[in-house]
Amino acid sequence: MMTDPVADMLTRIRNAVAIERPHVDIPTSKLKVGIAEALQREGYIWEYEIVESEPRNVLRLILKYGPNGERVITKIDRHSKPGCRVYANVKGTPTVLDGLGVAILSTNKGVLSSREARAQNVGGEVLCTIY
């Protein structure tokens, strides 16, 4: 039984980037699709798609690398955990590496990056940071 599916998603992305895979397959959910949309809007992945399979649908992330194979995602960390939730208001949204990275937040307006959350003037649960 998996207790933290978001941490599993981030670990799969981290491992795929470490061995320079072109894509990674993850069991799908609405929250994971929202995180994938935020990563695509912020430019950390090329695209995502939902692949229909027999037991369960799979979320496929097409990972992004630089022109010489350098990694776009250098670090991705989970912040809010099932045992210790981390919330941030509008003024408390984290800045990652002085604006070079982003935090992904689950808000009442959907899953947003920290930049989008500040622009829409909302706070929420800090799911992860990425740079």
UniProtKB/TrEMBL annotation:
Protein name according to UniProt: Small ribosomal subunit protein uS8
HAMAP family found in the cross-reference section: Ribosomal_uS8_B
Gene: rpsH
Family: Belongs to the universal ribosomal protein uS8 family.
Keyword Transcription regulation: no
Keyword field contains RNA-binding: yes
Superkingdom as given in the UniProt entry: Bacteria
Phylogenetic lineage: Bacteria, Pseudomonadati, Planctomycetota, Planctomycetia, Planctomycetales
Alphabetized InterPro entries for the sequence: Ribosomal_uS8, Ribosomal_uS8_CS, Ribosomal_uS8_sf
UniProt KW keywords: Ribonucleoprotein, Ribosomal protein, RNA-binding, rRNA-binding
Subunit structure: Part of the 30S ribosomal subunit. Contacts proteins S5 and S12.
Annotated GO CC locations: cytoplasm; ribonucleoprotein complex; ribosome
Protein function: One of the primary rRNA binding proteins, it binds directly to 16S rRNA central domain where it helps coordinate assembly of the platform of the 30S subunit.
Protein source organism: Alienimonas californiensis
Entry GO MF terms: rRNA binding; structural constituent of ribosome
BP term (GO), one: translation
